[in-house]
From TrEMBL:
The lineage of its organism: Bacteria, Bacillati, Bacillota, Bacilli, Bacillales. It catalyses: a quaternary ammonium(out) + ATP + H2O = a quaternary ammonium(in) + ADP + phosphate + H(+). It comes from Paranoxybacillus vitaminiphilus. This is Carnitine transport ATP-binding protein OpuCA. The keyword Acyltransferase does not apply. Residues 4-231 form the ABC transporter domain.
């Protein structure tokens, strides 16, 4: 597992300053979330952790090593599932293993194991077009899990799903995390989602994004969205985001 550390990070795209002096640490095995307004640089920050972007200043590290490029130790899951429609579910899940030179027999075995883990046992030979939105996102998660990463990076993974499917997927994600010990970093606009899932929430300001508050959650698990403390924390975050007076 990996501890993630972001130190004094700044990032601009041309004259547009996106991130300013970001400092945060996520201990290995923890579930962290970042919430903030649209355009504040949340996804850019996540892409830095994935090794897909580099900071203009500062460092992004995993276990003390500067992240310079993508690694199978850190896998990213996007809002859009980005499955290849001409490949079966199994072939989509196996793609990373195939690129890594894993044998066909081993690829199939590992793909079937993770498909069972995400509730898609028996769907190996289906195509993405035959699946619901929630099922396609499960395939996307399976594609990341099959690489057995230390860190899962989730960029609004359930933003395109309906409310009921979203709640179901949140519970499934919790079960995956609790059984794996992996480090999770979630980007979300949904305050309740962050409160329900995370150990730690980083609240970001509008662009240029800064971390204005780090909240270490004292909510016991399993969590109730209707508890008094849950409501108090929701209101605190809404005030930090300027959504309530």
């Amino acid at each position: 597992m990996q501890t993630l550390e972001i130190q004094r990070v700044h990032k601009s795209f041309g004259s547009l300053k996106v991130l300013e002096n970001i400092n945060l640490t996520i201990e290995k095995g923890k579930f962290a979330a970042i919430v903030g307004p649209s355009g504040c640089g949340k996804s850019t920050l996540l892409r830095m952790v994935a090794g897909l972007e580099t900071p203009d200043e500062g460092t992004v590290q995993a276990d003390g090593k500067v992240i310079k490029q993508p690694s199978p130790e850190r896998m990213m899951i996007f809002q859009e599932h980005a499955l290849y429609p001409w490949l079966t579910v199994g072939e989509n899940v196996e793609m990373g293993l195939e690129l890594a030179g894993v044998s066909k027999e081993e690829r199939r075995k590992r793909a079937q194991e993770v498909l069972k883990t995400v509730g898609l046992d028996g769907f190996y030979n289906y195509y993405p077009s035959q699946l619901s939105g929630g099922m396609r996102q499960r395939v996307s998660i399976a594609r990341a899990l099959v690489m057995d990463p230390d860190v899962l990076l989730l960029d609004e993974p359930y933003g395109a799903l309906d409310a009921m499917t979203r709640l179901t997927m949140q519970n499934e994600l919790l079960k995956l995390w609790e059984g794996s010990g992996k480090t999770m970093l979630l980007i979300t606009h949904d305050i309740d989602e962050a409160l329900y899932l995370a150990d730690q929430i980083f609240v970001m300001s509008a662009r240029p994004g800064k971390v204005v508050q780090t909240i270490d959650l004292d909510l016991p698990r399993p969590r109730s969205r209707h508890s008094q403390r849950f409501g108090e924390l929701r209101q605190e975050i809404m005030q930090l985001l300027g959504l309530e007076e």
